[in-house]
Amino acid sequence: MTTASDPSYPDHWEADVVLRDGGTARIRPITTDDAGRLVSFYEQVSDESKYYRFFAPYPRLSDRDVHRFTHHDYVDRVGLAATIGGEFIATVRYDRIGADGRSATGPSDEAEVAFLVQDAHQGRGVASALLEHIGAVARERGIRRFAAEVLPANSKMIKVFTDAGYQQKRSFEDGSVHLTLDLEPTAESLAVQRAREQRAEARSVQRLLSPGSVAVIGVSRSLAGVGAAALRNLRDSGFHGHLYAVNEAVTRDLLDGVRAYPTLGAVGAPVDLAVIAVPAGRVPDAVAACGEHGVQGLVVLSAGYGESGPEGMARQRELVRQVRSYGMRLIGPNAFGVINTAPEVELNASLAPAPAPARGRVGLFTQSGAIGIALLSGLLRRGEGLSSFVSAGNRADVSGNDILQYWYDDEATDVALMYLETLGNPRKFTRLARRTAAVKPVVVAKGGRHTPAGHVVPGTRLPEATVSELLRQAGVIRVDTVTELVDVGLLLASQPVPAGPRVAILGNSESLGVLTYDACLTEGLRPLPPLDLTTAASPEDFRTAVSAALASPDTDAVVVTAIPWVSEHALADDLAEALRAAAAAHPGKPVAVVHVELGALAEALSAATAPTAATDLADALPATLPTPATALAALGSGSASEAGPAAEAVPASAAVPAAEAAPATAATPFRPEPTSEGAGSAAVPAPGTARIPSYPAAERAVKAVAEAVRYGQWRRGVAEVGQVPEFEDIDESGAAGQLSRLLAGVGEEEAATLDDPDARELLARYGIRVLSTLPAPSADAAVRAARVLGYPVALKTTAPHLRHRADLGGVRLDLTTEAELRRSYEELTHALGKPQELLPVVQSMVPRGVDTVIRSVIDPAAGAVLSFGLSGVASELLGDTAHRLVPATDKDAASLIRSIRTAPLLFGWRGSDPVDTPALEELLLRLSRLVDDHPEVVGVALEPVVVATEGLSVLSATVRVAHPPARGDLGPRTLPSY
């Protein structure tokens, strides 16, 4: 029978899942090697649970039982196990049955299913996760229904079935509840699955950010190095839980005032979170110790993983496998750490100097430690606090998707800021971002736009403008730089979202007002003429003007411009107070300030009446940002002999000169001078104090306002939810069967272009009719084809170098007679080459209209994308193409064709007849459904699509297919695999 090493073992069924309580488990097929694990698992199940499973007392499994439950053909009989630490915690099994309820083989499409969950793990959502995975396996094997017999007293198991969201039937027979579940996914089952995913993943992040106890593994005895810095930051942040230091060479009870132990096992108390700061070679031992101690999550600061090349990537994959085998989650490796400013937690498990940032309403996620430092510094210098901060380093496990799940219902976070280099699972990211953006702004700065050779982050084939458009479709506010990320975040965190694009501009400089006016026009806003208060304007003049602008029904936002007075410092506080008073009196509209060399005003606008923890942190952050490696190195100057074998986390390649590697306890921290963006001592305003964001340039302020305006427009539009239509004539199962046959001879890593008949057949199953063409290898063949099709006809070349190149003369239209056709054939072959080179075809003429092109492609960074443009110069030379994510809704299709600059040509430009846009929208939706239903379809090009005043004609189609990934975003819940 099959073992895990056999070729027939379905390894794509293996998956890591997050459970209801935030822990993880691994789901995998049961093999013949699992006999001992199964017996051990069964011995730990209570008599009551055994009774519920077998409907009778069943104290132990017989040898025959063990053989039956571990020997499967993975077609008609399948067993899956959920494991933690390699041991079973739950099992599920299905057996295909016939109409008589007895064991059967295909083509029967029904199976009996049964679960058993260890009592200690009941209530964690294990059975629900197993049902999702066994259901996906069953569908893959042609099973469409599950039947289950459950005792009425087994209410937990009945609830697992009834809450799954599948269509089901329920009856009471012979003293048991008989349930039948239709395994075809429904809108309800998908909603249930995604709601469980959100709760589980949010809970897993919450456990990392709100631990009751933390151990730092790798604290040097000299109190230098990364581990000691992390310990010191935890201690000085005022962490409310228990804190422990671990160093195997420790010789005293305390390290830096914290209880110290030689091993984690010696702690003798639960540990929720472990911060690991040891060399990469010693991390596996530390992880094993954490797993055996019951630690819930890890922050691995150690470097030497995926960022260091193929060997490091292999080490990283093994780290993830080891961490998940114990049911833990991982931030890192090569992480900068995590911060949670909640008053009941006050956690600073990071390398950011303590005390932790001030409490605020902004959540911050970064993949880069250096960028994390920059963003922390930028936010805090300008007076903004944080709710939480995660710098995930290599993002091997916990990613931006997990953090979005947490922020979605985190009441402490109003604005989500993210620096990303990749989107990870792009379909999931856009799905989560769209949902989160509907309740709070999500601002993203994405690196990796141009991937350098050897970089570990995969790039995208899509143009940068396309990526931005797709993110905006999901409600994401896409910015280009970390400076813009801070600028936009400040405005959204402190000001309401504008109701429209009308902007009032006022200030004491006419020139600065004109610059602001021009910037508004550039950003697509509708500015009012600037109001010049003159250089003699007093703070009271500003207050009066701002109040009037905010009260006006003709404005949606106000930008205030200010230049210095002779006595700047004397008036800065008064002006800040005047602006705050005006904004507080009219709180429904945003206010932004543009200042020129008014650092004191910027400080007064952002600062409270008394300094907070932000003062010390902003002072401690360096002016010149180090790389992640040097950031780690700069925090540790201790030697291995001082630290003990497990204490030094910095690789030798990250070392810096001793003069630069001052320990974190240096007596004189760097104190930045106040800048035009805000003073180094900026602090978060006290509760009830209105804070107004200020900017040193008009373009930056207007850019932030414009992004807020566009976000507000998206929020209002998303309130009207589009629908993915159901088409009665779609043959989804027929298309699936055809694709299965077509891919039979295609390699796993290969893609194939379908020949014309297969492409036409596949598209026709989704109601997309491609106009017939007949080959014309000779003039006589062309004449015969024309007689079949009927005149008038078109004569076209289909050679790859001439395809869709009418400008090269490879197309002859409106040929109404045999003589015209023969003459055109001769001209074509004389001018361009022999028939065997040109591959000419004959096609019926269609009604005149606008030539368009529709494409769909699978992009590595964006997922399935639907594109539209006009055929020819507009899309190919000018790049006038619009894009939407798949699946597209009716609203997406309507906006897609209206998004291109040349859209007026479709709607009666200069007196021409409008074309049939409803037919065009339907074609887009049908293609979206095809690509969404069948991930095997990796590329489609319909070109040209001639859209007439009534109807349209698809003249040519190219379809590319490949084997799909084992699991997509629509499959059962699963963590990314490594």
Structure description:
- By secondary structure, this protein is an alpha/beta fold.
- The protein is 35% helix and 21% strand.
- The strands form six sheets. An eight-stranded mixed β-sheet has the order 1-2-3-4-5-6-8-7, sandwiched between helices. It has a seven-stranded mixed β-sheet with strand order 11-12-10-9-13-14-15, with helices on both faces.
- Helix 12 links the parallel strand 20 and strand 21.
Task: List the topology elements.
Elements: E1 15-18, E2 24-29, H1 35-43, H2 47-54, H3 63-70, E3 77-84, E4 87-97, E5 110-117, H4 126-140, E6 145-150, H5 155-162, E7 168-173, E8 176-182, H6 187-209, E9 213-217, H7 226-236, E10 242-246, E11 254-255, E12 258-261, E13 273-276, H8 283-293, E14 297-300, H9 310-325, E15 329-331, E16 337-340, E17 347-350, E18 359-366, H10 369-381, E19 386-391, H11 400-408, E20 415-420, H12 426-437, E21 442-446, H13 464-473, E22 477-479, H14 482-494, E23 502-507, H15 510-522, E24 526-527, E25 531-532, H16 539-551, E26 557-562, H17 568-585, E27 591-595, H18 599-606, H19 613-620, H20 628-634, H21 640-643, E28 694-695, H22 698-718, H23 732-742, E29 751-753, H24 756-764, E30 773-775, H25 779-789, E31 793-797, E32 811-815, H26 818-832, H27 835-838, E33 840-844, E34 850-859, E35 863-870, H28 873-876, E36 881-885, H29 890-899, H30 917-933, E37 937-947, E38 952-954, E39 957-962
Parallel strand pairs: 5-6, 9-10, 9-13, 10-12, 13-14, 14-15, 18-19, 18-20, 20-21, 21-22, 23-24, 23-25, 23-26, 26-27, 27-28
Antiparallel strand pairs: 1-2, 2-3, 3-4, 4-5, 6-8, 7-8, 11-12, 16-17, 16-19, 29-39, 30-33, 31-32, 31-33, 34-35, 34-37, 35-36, 37-38, 37-39
Helix pairs in contact: 6-11, 8-9, 10-14, 10-19, 11-12, 14-22, 15-22, 16-17, 17-18, 25-26, 29-30
